[in-house]
Amino acid sequence: MSAKGCFSYKNDTVNGFNLTLDNEALQMRVEAINQNVAKIYMTDVDGNPVSVPDAVTLRDSAGANVAAYNNEFLITWVDSYILSVAGVDNVWMTNQKQQAFKTAAGITHFTI
User: Following DSSP, what letter does each residue of 30-95 receive, concatenated?
Assistant: First the structure.
């Protein structure tokens, strides 16, 4: 497994991955809907939307399947996900579960 970048819900950058299913080249794309929700959808190599094949599944960090809705999966920033093709895990989307701190003047930060 190797890192391939990261996705932000805060910009309009669409991330994509090239997949192959039954010798057919497909693309999985991840695109923010707003700052809390993104959609995962499939296209052909020319970028034309295609239906999510039955062999493509998504599950959350608890292992529960995420159902496709209108030919896309909806994800949020609070969970991690694994996309599988024909039962084989292909793309891991791991939430880094971090918080950035900002403080008012006079408040100091420490760690233990």
Answer: EEESSSSEEEEEEE-TTS-EEPPPTTEEEEETTSPEEPPBTTEEEEETTS-EEEEETTEEEEEE--
Q: What is the pTM of this model?
A: 0.85
Over residues 22-43, mean pLDDT: 94
For 59, the token pair is: 């599950």
Is-contact 40 66, C-beta < 8 A? no
Banded model confidence at residue 79, pLDDT cuts 50, 70, 90:
very high
56: burial class by Cβ within 10 Å (0-12, 13-18, 19+)?
buried
Compute the radius of gyration of the chain from its Cα atoms: 17
